[in-house]
Amino acid sequence: MSVLESRHGGARLAALTLVAAGVLAGSPSSAAAQEETERETAELIGQVVSASTGLPLEGARVILLGSGYGAITDAEGNFRVPRTWAGRDSVEVRYIGYEAGYTIIELEPDQTTRVTLTLSSTVIRIADLTVEVRQTRRARHVEGFLERREKGFGTFFTPRDIINRNPRLPSDLLRGLPNVAVGRIEYGRAEVFLGEGARLGCPPALYLDGMYQAGMQFDDLEKEVLGAVEVYRRDVETPMEFMRTGSTCGAIVVWTPDGAGFLDWAGELPPFE
After folding, report:
1. Angstrom distance (rounded) from CA 98 to CA 58
2. What are residue 155's phi and psi, to 5 degrees?
3. How far apart are alpha carbons 157 and 119 in whole angstroms?
4. Span 157-215, pLDDT tens digits
5. Helical H runs in 44-158?
């Protein structure tokens, strides 16, 4: 694995080649050790491409194994993890038709690291399967939002709703909703509890473009990433794809304007009056 790094405009650039599953350079133990101290944060952005074709891979899952944060690539193969732990971490990438790939990355505190992740493992060439997966993924991101809203469970905010409410922080979007507790703003964010979460003292699970964000709270996001939002107060109304084992504290699902198919979907909404 070769790593090329440079600094440009405050961002740290790297080109990484992922190795096939089972071959992982280095150890993620440093990320685990950092949990004992107060963590500095960083941002990770980049692109996932195929080594054989050089083309971007849409729908690849990028996961930082140490922090648990992750993202899903868009139609151009791009992804963004707006907040994760600084320092050394292990990156895992999974994509249909490819073996999982891994590499080690260094994230500088309070900086944006840009990477190109190249999957170089054996490709299973099943063109029809690839097309079907893309259709299913778009439905889950776009049509799935509308289908879930029609079922009457949860609270849904479209792009128009978010613009009309004009929240200063993401949590402001939820203020005034029944069975939702939004605490005082401290250190630039407010704690949010849904349903029984206030009594149990547990925050809701947070999903960003379909990917669970471990240890992340709603106000850890910038308001600019709020394209559409789903709020589920109880486990009985939470869709299976947004349920965590043993969790009864609800879920907040955020779809970003950069997510796959989002702009196509938003463009079909009625115009603002």
Report:
1. 13
2. -120, 135
3. 36
4. 988 889 888 888 999 999 988 888 888 777 777 888 888 766 777 888 888 888 888 77
5. 127-138, 144-150
Residue 67, amino acid: S
- Decide: helix, strand or coil at residue 134: helix
Q: What is the pLDDT of residue 269?
A: 54
**What are the residues whose beta carbons fall under 8 Å from the beta carbon of 136, sequence distance 6 or more?**
none
Higher pLDDT, 159 or 16: 159
Residue with tokens 């999974």: 94
Q: How many CB atoms lie within 10 A of CB 178?
A: 6
Please state, in angstroms and rounded to a whole number, the distance separating the CA atoms of residues 101 and 87. Answer: 20
| pTM for this prediction | 0.53
At position 45, the amino acid (one-letter code) is I
Residue 17 predicted with pLDDT over 80? no
Q: Domains in the chain and their CATH numbers?
A: 3-119 (2.60.40.10), 130-267 (2.170.130.10)
The rounded distance, in Å, linking the Cα atoms of 246 and 235 is: 9
